Automatic annotation (TrEMBL):
Residue span(s) of domain XdhC- CoxI: 13-70
InterPro entries the UniProt entry points to: MoCofactor_Util/Proc, Xanthine_DH_XdhC, XdhC_CoxI, XdhC_Rossmann_dom
Tree of life domain: Bacteria
Official protein name in the record: Xanthine dehydrogenase accessory protein XdhC
Length: 283
């Protein structure tokens, strides 16, 4: 059996939606002790909190949280006999921690000087980098924990993989490719941040072409070009990359959601007592 801790590391690293279910307190006879955990994903459940109706309820409730699409926490105190029909008859308190989009998905088109400099910065940020280029030998040969390279013939072919909320950064070696990626993003009705490297002249020309192609002004102005923090100066690849990374940090910081904890007063007192007892036992 795969351990919940191994699965949690994988899901967090890949930024995949999941719920961590923890038994945080027990009273009487229960399937497993406090501290037992499991991971629930849309298609899989990993490890166990004891099986039976309690675990089935935990899986169903977790998938309900995932379907709602919001990062959150919930606590439930469950009487096993009365609510779950389990003959053990005790009470189990479960903590549900729902993680949705745990890391920002960044799709970077272009592995030139700025792209390579930017990838170094992104490797230290809470993002998963999907890196696309058409040229042989420009991308790394292997995946890394937070980086997936795509060497393709046509950069637009990866759009079927790109979530609508992902960040798209366009900086290929070819203006024709940049334009094709812009049109693919607008045709997809992309909802996430869309940034294009270039000068004000390039931005004006692209907007004119996109308008002639039939896209609305609202769609066209959804493309940020030039991209980066305004007024930073510097044209070296790393200087440009720092400006773009700073803008990206602004984007994902603005999108970050707190994890509201929905818990009633009685459960809060119980949780506090449990944590105090745990702290006392470890002293």
């Amino acid at each position: 059996m795969i351990r919940w801790s191994d699965a949690l590391a994988d899901y967090q690293r890949e930024g995949l939606p999941h719920v961590l279910v923890s038994v945080i307190n027990t009273e009487g006879s229960v399937p497993r002790n406090a501290g037992s955990k499991m991971i629930v994903a849309p298609e899989h459940a990993i490890d166990t909190i004891g099986g039976g109706n309690l675990e089935q309820h935990a899986i169903e409730f977790s998938r309900q949280l995932l379907a709602e699409g919001n990062a959150c926490q919930r606590i439930e105190k469950i009487p096993l006999a009365a609510a779950m029909g389990q003959c053990c008859g005790g009470h189990a308190t479960l903590l549900f921690e729902c993680f949705v989009n745990t890391s920002t998905q960044v799709w970077l088109f272009g592995a030139g000087h700025v792209g390579k400099a930017l990838s170094l910065i992104l490797s230290e940020l809470p993002v998963h980098l999907h890196w696309v280029d058409t040229r042989e030998g420009f991308l790394p040969q292997q995946n890394e924990p937070n980086r997936t390279p795509y060497r393709v013939q046509d950069p637009t072919e990866v759009f079927q993989k790109i979530p609508k909320q992902a960040v798209i950064l366009i900086m290929t070696h070819c203006h024709a490719q940049d334009y094709a990626i812009c049109t693919a993003a607008l045709a997809q009705q992309h909802e996430g941040f869309l940034g294009l490297i270039g000068s004000k002249t390039k931005a004006a020309r692209f907007r004119h072409r996109l308008q002639r192609a039939g896209f609305s002004s609202e769609q066209i102005h959804g493309i940020e070009c030039p991209i980066g923090i305004k007024g930073t100066g510097g044209k070296r690849p790393m200087e440009v990359a720092v400006s773009i990374a700073s803008r990206l940090i602004e984007v994902y910081s603005a999108q970050a959601n707190p994890l509201p904890l929905n818990i009633n007063t009685g459960d809060l007192h119980q949780l506090t007592d449990t944590l105090n007892e745990t702290a006392h036992d470890t002293q």
